Amino acid sequence: MTCILLILLVPLSSSFLCSKGCSSCMADYTCNTTCSDTFDDDHTCNLCKWSSPSALNPEAYLMNSEGQCLKSNSILSKNRWMPDDQYIQEIFPNIPTPILLDLNTPLDYSFCRYPMKYRVGKWFKLNMTPIKNNYMYAIVDKNRDDVSMSMDITNSKRDAKSGNCMAHTSSPMSSRNVIIKGNFFHSDYVNNGTQEIVFTFFISTDTVKTINATLTVTFSVFQLKDNTTIISQKETDEMVKNLSIVREVKYSFDTIGIYYYPTCMPTFLSKIVIFTITFDANYSLLLSTKRSNKLNYFLLNKIIFTNDSLIALCERLWSGSKVSTLESEQEGILANIQGAKNERKFSLFTQDYYSDVLFTYQVICPNHCNAENGQGECVTSEAKCVCKSGYGGDDCHLLCYYHDNWQVKDHDDLCYFGSNGCDQYCKCESGYTLQNNLCVSNYCHDDNKLDIEECKRSEYGCAQNCYCDTANGFFFNNTSFKCQSINCGNNKIDQVHWGTKSLKDEECDGGVNCNDQCLCIKGYITNPEETTSCKLKSIGGGAIAGIVIGGIVFVVILITIIITVILLVLNYKQIDIEVFREQQPTYYYYINGSVNCEPNKESKFEVDPEQLDFGNSTSATAIMDTRYENIQVKNRSRNKYMMVIFHTPNTPKYVFHFDPQVAIMRPRASGYVTCYMTLYCTTKLKGMKIPYTVWFSHSRGTLNEIALLLKDKNFETWNNSDQRNMDKLSKSVLKKYHHNLILATDAASSTHIDMDELSISEKPIAEGAMGRVYMGSYRSVAVAVKQFRWEKLDEDEVAELKKNVVAECEMMAKLRNPFIASYIGSVTYIPQVSMVIQFFILGSLGEYLRQEKEDYVKMPYKLKVRMLFDTSRGMQFLHENRIMHLDLKPDNLLVNSLDCNSACTIKITDFGTSRFKKKSITNSEDKGLGTPIYAAPETFKDEYTFAGDVYSFAITAWELYYQVEPYAQLKSIFDIKRHVEEGKRLSFDQNIPTLYKNMIMECWRADPKDRPSFDQVCNSIVKIDEDVNNHLEEGNQNEKIVEIVNKRTDRIQKQINSISE
């Protein structure tokens, strides 16, 4: 009887989490059919159908408590943004007004914005004319905490075109109160009672449930007392001990805050949150909201209190973004707060009443960087002290060791500052011991080495601290990963010594059988006839005899091992794990006449466990990891066969493979089914249900026929013929049950993105040989999505390219640098592989350089130099990490700011063709990388080196200065190739600064070995920057830049909004 009741009460389960508006899903909340008529057909089917109030016969759709969207024609009729007075109840101060919202309440829409237009709500009005006290406290007390309610207030008049959303707040599910409080009149307002002022309220909810509530409005003298956060002296004193500590506070302005006209901006009605800071110390507190993406217009204002009353003084104001919007990195406030004796109140305020703000604070600049002694200064943008020469550490103290010289007298027990394991005070860190002014790790001491160390101390050229002995002329060779003498390679035998080793000669140098360290390769010794080379070491007679005997013994042992392995293989059942990573057939989830029942004695079957955690009960499951769990299945029937079918989800996001998928068991039998789980992206997993069906019959053959009938069928392919066959077979089926396995683990966080979390624009914003780039949104963050094009490739080529792209994505995930565009993740589990990176509203540098471009602007010379400097620093970082770009050009340089004083103007992107390199690429598989205009001459011969990026940088620098297309006079790519191979280059005029010109000419030298590294390029640009003031142009382009940036920002913001809608 229990099972019969359950089937009436419990809805049919599905393989995926699916909304009520979808009949079946291809993934969690991703419908593989169209949504129901009452739902918005967006493939998620989570929102009710949108309704237009301007329609002739408007219809409204609202969700009930069961998640179903109900159609309603009970809509409040109105000709303006607010209804007629008969539908608006007048309320009075201090008098509670009852509110009833239920099925009979007409639907209406508010003057504030909501995802769904229509809501269940009622209107109220309050005459503010006789009110003398400005501080209003409006509260709605509701009788239940399983619904969310909202309160909106406007002061707009009836004849206004639309209502102004003056105030808005919502209650979280757990709260029974909806509160709006604050002062809605600016400081200069005087209520003389002659002007009629009416506040209109709309109290509403987004669900159809019966709610009893009361609305009460009171007034008092305005005082700001609400503290959301207190930062105390005790807390900051603890934080200064570890400057890496960053505390976070999340403010949700949709549910909290006070309305107020800030004294710094008396016409700016805002919603504010207040916090207290109390500390008086010789360090600073850095407050920031930069980690949120919705802070373009947030401000921070300091408020002064005396005797618990507000004094209308504007002491300091911090803006979250510049008025010119030039510095996009300044979105969100960044405030340096120094200590003070008195308690101070601060407020964070905004006009966006719906935003969530992540507020962070940290201690910076201890001892105020010893600025009073001229030792350094506190730089807010870098959140640290910037020290003068000879000073350093967290507080710019005198360094004990600087530029290979001790700056203190007693230094026997001190380590060299800057060496590994040595802290800012020349003391060895934990895990290190001091030896000869070097800090030696425990691993190094035992003749091992840490991953960050370069060598073992017993190895050639290695110092006592397991780093190459630079003091004695050794350096770390990034190709051989060994220590090498600076004299090695001069074809001379030099004397060398390192660490505690005595002086000795090199074994060889540049000759035959000599390695990169000037050591003879194994089995060779110095050739006395030609000391720069090595010869084969001779073997004595005794050694030869030993080798022969040892060889015979080895052969005997090897034959024994081979025979043993063969015997083991013959008796071993090999298991290919890849089989369990493959999707299994779909079995139609046929539950007509079935009972939804948990395994128990009455149902005569057991499936244990039903909660599957795959051994990860306390941790998430890693992506690409295949895990398994054994499930015991028992048939407790005495005389009936039992069949269990596991209906696996069919989605590329993950694979659940059951071995076996269909299990038929004789009476009173038991066995095990193994479930293998492989995840291919970070997606919602916990709580997901995997259904299974249980069939009982006296005939094993009948159960086999049913399994065969259901195989490779689904709801859409199941036809009348199948149903007739099932009806016949069902006559021999005695009982049918269905239930679910439930996942008790979740997918670990990773850069493998779930495609369903990406919203992508219909049209690409850029195209190239490798693919198309789209604007998108990922978890409310604007992103750029690169989709690789490989339509014309065969299956093997696609597999190989996908492998390369995945490797590239894994490499990019490890890169973190201010001048490299942030990598967010990639979608690799479907054929259309996508790479997701940070989106920049200002676009690429190439969009500003040509006159035919919409956003063309004549850039100031100083800005050009700054852009080159940031590009060179980004490339310096890539090359230090053994990464070539191979397609460096303006289109792959994203503009972070058009302000030459910005901390970062350029971020490098598009590593679609980059590779990790230890040596030059010579294989034909990578032919044709890059863009021909910017390609170095050696690339035409399929030779790719780090110097090739330097050449591309030179062409980019030329184009940036002149802002015209390189080689515009040449007709084809072949002409450009011939021009470059002949040693010709782009021409210069007389106006280009000499230092700028010389840098370009150095970078595009014909021989790659003659080109400078990006370390040297950075140094050159520093000198160019020092000379900038001698080459300033006439006129001011700042206004033009501001105009272009504002237009572009508005245009792009509209596109972003259209994607998010």
Could you explain the architecture of this structure?
InterPro entries: EGF, Kinase-like_dom_sf, Prot_kinase_dom, Ser-Thr/Tyr_kinase_cat_dom, Ser/Thr_kinase_AS, TKL_Ser/Thr_kinase. With 1061 residues, the protein is an alpha+beta fold. Among the domains are: 15-47, no CATH class; 60-64 and 66-220, Sandwich (Jelly Rolls); 229-364, Sandwich (Jelly Rolls), CATH 2.60.120.1050; 412-449, no CATH class; 452-486, no CATH class; 487-537, no CATH class; 577-743, Immunoglobulin-like; 751-839, Phosphorylase Kinase, domain 1 (2-Layer Sandwich). The protein is built from 13 helices and 60 strands. Strands 16, 18, 19, 21, 22, 23 and 25 form a 7-stranded mixed sheet that branches. Strands 5, 7, 8, 10, 11 and 13 form a 6-stranded mixed sheet that branches. Strands 41, 43, 45, 47, 49 and 50 form a 6-stranded mixed sheet that branches. A hairpin with a 2-residue loop joins β21 and β22 (309-311). α9 runs antiparallel to α11. The two termini are 49 Å apart.
Gap between N and C termini: 49 Å
The overall pLDDT average reads 83
CATH architecture of the domain at 577-743: Sandwich
Rg from Cα? 37 Å
User: Percent of residues in beta strands?
Assistant: 25-35%
Taken from the alpha-carbon principal axes, the silhouette is: globular
Helix fraction bin: 10-25%
DSSP summary, beta strand count:
60
* Major β-sheet annotation: 7 strands, mixed
Task: Predict the CATH topology of the domain at 577-743.
Answer: Immunoglobulin-like
- Count of helical regions: 13
Question: CATH superfamily name of the domain at 577-743?
Answer: Immunoglobulins
- Structural class computed from helices and strand pairing: alpha+beta
What CATH first level of the domain at 577-743 would be assigned? Answer: Mainly Beta
Low-confidence stretches: 1-15, 293-298, 322-330, 912-930
